[in-house]
From TrEMBL:
Belongs to the IlvD/Edd family. This is Phosphogluconate dehydratase. InterPro entries: 6-phosphgluc_deHydtase, Dihydro-acid_dehy_C, DiOHA_6PGluconate_deHydtase_CS, ILV_EDD_C, ILV_EDD_N, IlvD/EDD_N. The gene is edd. PANTHER family: D-XYLONATE DEHYDRATASE (PTHR43661), PHOSPHOGLUCONATE DEHYDRATASE (PTHR43661:SF1). NCBIfam families: edd (TIGR01196). It catalyses: 6-phospho-D-gluconate = 2-dehydro-3-deoxy-6-phospho-D-gluconate + H2O. It holds the Pfam family ILV_EDD_C. Residues 405-596 form the Dihydroxy-acid/6-phosphogluconate dehydratase C-terminal domain.
């Protein structure tokens, strides 16, 4: 192992010792109790399969016959999730073929961040993760299952399913992806049209035409944002079947992988020789592997929130310092839009996850000695799935990159360090994604322009007031203020000013999209302005220096003077669009550097 990777892993183990022991004890107690159907009255159990086909009914009369839960985030609003409409039938059929049954145990909500960007609904986005976790728990609390299959791909959905599954960590759990849509127009062309629209040089009709050519069919959006970072992480943690992440939907190979997931879930149930519960697959080492994969591929900054919350659900305590230290030694070996010009389909064709996994293991930057749903050891994930006639087989993946503009080996990376760094200074703590920011833009010193919401900044841009060097401070965007919405709609406007030659940066206690790109952005700033964090005291004209190279965020104001100023008034919560229903979550939300989660108490 690389010494820093080993040291970070060990300190996570030490930090988590008490919480992890408590978690494992609870999961072992649940395992010892066995599936609830063996303890249910006949009336209770009959309710559970009253609507099943006759063949399934007869099988389910046997209290030892395996039964698998399907928890799905299917809906038609998410192109990535629309293919899940077909999956339950595939999974049920596959389970029957190996003597088991599979039941659709429950659905979870799944909102599309692509639809809600810049809209009021985005204020519910982060908290939808916690709602999904609770919904997953409701689905599994029937306690009638030997294993679980999680059908989810996008943004908050995989983390929410993960947190919910962790509460039932005695069950083997496999995440079942749907795959990316086929490639549309080039990402460069899409970005160009967005920038022209931000400048008022193309019409809304021309912009919509461009977007429709990019987002054009079923499957995950093909840029490397949070959704596809989720799929990478599920491979690195061993919760996918090997190579399942980036096979397109509605293809024979995709359907074969889906069926194989149901069969494998039954194989690894308690009582067999390959018992692999969620609680054994997810531990300190597998979570370090997830972080290594995120850093090596330039993945989504949203996971500096999600991994912390996901880990805590399994009794593992991860910090931003862990991310920061791993990033210093994990080279960036992938360039996928917005960090490069090509999409995840090109990444997959160039070697994809099999190549990334091999490189990280060979360099000692990931742990090989972990439990996975495919067996013991992460080396299994160096393999790729293929169809040999009708039979699903795995073969060794590429040992060398098939396109060095997209993937490179660890000894010749795109950058010597990973794509995410922690920032600290008088304005608090935050994170920045450096992998998509050119070196010449990583240090910005300029006067602050302060906004209390994103609409104020966009209005200033339309009025032509941003033609200068500036650091945009967009505050009152943290979890307790308004649910911590993504501010991705600011990217085109800020990018236009940067392209004009101005020094531009963003500082916010909100989030940016997993597809955040070329403008340097200090995000997730904590303590947030709503609870009296330093951003609440910044004024227009204060000189701010963001230095992504040094990991610092400074303000040229004496800290005592800054905090002695009158505190900016927190904007009132705005009702409507369901936001009034989430007041308790805003009040309960922990800080960003603990995952911004409303489900756990944070000391």
């Amino acid at each position: 192992m690389h010494p820093v990777t080993a040291e970070v892993t060990q300190r996570i183990v030490e930090r988590s010792r008490e919480a992890r022991a408590d978690y494992l004890a609870r999961m072992e107690s649940a395992r010892q109790a066995g599936p609830g159907r063996g303890k249910l009255s006949c009336a209770n159990w009959a309710h559970a399969f009253a609507a099943q086909p006759d063949g399934d009914k007869q099988r389910m009369r046997d209290p030892t016959a395996p039964n698998v839960a399907i928890v799905s985030a299917y809906n038609d609003m998410l192109s990535a999730h629309q293919p899940y409409e077909r999956f339950p039938d595939i999974l049920r059929k596959a389970a029957r073929e190996v003597g088991g049954t599979a039941q659709y145990a429950g659905g979870v909500p799944a909102m599309c961040d692509g639809v809600t960007q810049g809209r009021p609904g985005m204020e519910l986005s982060l908290f939808s993760r916690d709602v999904i976790a609770m919904s997953t728990a409701i689905a599994l609390t029937h306690d009638a299952f030997d294993a679980a299959l999680m059908l989810g791909i996008c943004d908050k959905i995989v983390p929410g399913l993960f947190i919910g599954a962790a509460a039932f960590g005695h069950l083997p759990t496999i995440f079942v992806p749907g795959g990316p849509m086929t490639s549309g127009i080039s990402n460069a062309e899409k970005a160009r049209t967005r920038a022209l629209y931000a400048e008022g040089k193309v019409t809304r009709e021309e912009l919509l035409d461009s977007e429709m050519k990019s987002y054009h069919g079923p499957g995950t959006c093909t840029f490397y944002g949070t959704a596809n970072s989720n799929q990478m992480m599920m491979e690195m943690t061993g919760l996918h079947l090997p190579g399942a992440a980036f096979v397109s939907p509605n293809t024979p190979l995709r359907d074969a992988l889906t069926a194989a997931a149901a069969k494998r879930a039954i194989e690894i149930r308690d009582g067999g020789n390959d018992y692999a519960p969620f609680a054994a697959v997810i531990d300190e080492k597998s979570l370090v592997n997830a972080m290594a994969g995120l850093l090596a591929t330039g993945g989504s900054t949203n996971h500096t929130l999600h991994i912390l919350a996901m880990a805590r659900a399994a009794g593992v305590l991860v910090t931003w310092e862990d991310f920061n230290d791993l990033s210093r030694v994990t080279p960036l070996i992938a360039r996928v839009y917005p960090n490069g010009s090509e999409d995840v389909n090109a990444f997959h064709a160039a070697g994809g996850m099999a190549f990334v996994t091999r490189q990280l293991l060979d360099a000692g930057l990931a742990h090989a000695d972990v439990q996975t749903v495919a067996g013991t050891g992460l080396r299994r994930y160096q393999q790729e799935p293929f169809l040999d006639g009708d039979r699903l087989v795995w073969r060794e993946g590429p040992a060398a990159s098939l396109d060095r503009e997209i993937l490179r080996p660890v000894d010749d990376p795109f950058q010597a360090e990973g794509g995410i760094r922690m920032l600290s200074g008088p304005l608090g703590r935050g994170v920045i994604k450096t992998s998509a920011v050119k070196p010449e833009h990583r240090i910005v010193e300029a006067p602050a322009l302060v906004f209390d919401d994103q609409d104020e900044l966009l209005a200033a841009h339309k009025r032509g007031e941003l033609n200068r060097d500036f650091v945009a401070v967009v505050r009152f965007q943290g979890p307790q203020a308004n649910g911590m919405p993504e501010l991705h709609s600011l990217t085109p406007a800020l990018g236009v000013q940067q392209d004009k030659g101005f020094k531009v940066a963003l500082v916010t206690d909100g989030r940016m999209s997993g597809a955040s790109g070329k403008v340097p952005a200090a995000i997730h700033m904590t303590a947030e302005a709503a609870v009296g964090g330093p951003l609440a005291y910044v004024r227009d004209g204060d000189v701010i220096r963001l230095d992504a190279e040094a990991g610092t965020l400074d303000i040229r104001v004496d800290p005592r003077e800054l905090m002695a100023r009158p505190r900016a008034a927190r904007p009132a919560s705005t009702p409507g669009y369901g936001r009034e229903l989430f007041g308790w979550m805003r009040r309960a939300a922990g800080p960003a550097d603990a995952g911004a989660c409303s489900l756990f108490e944070v000391a």
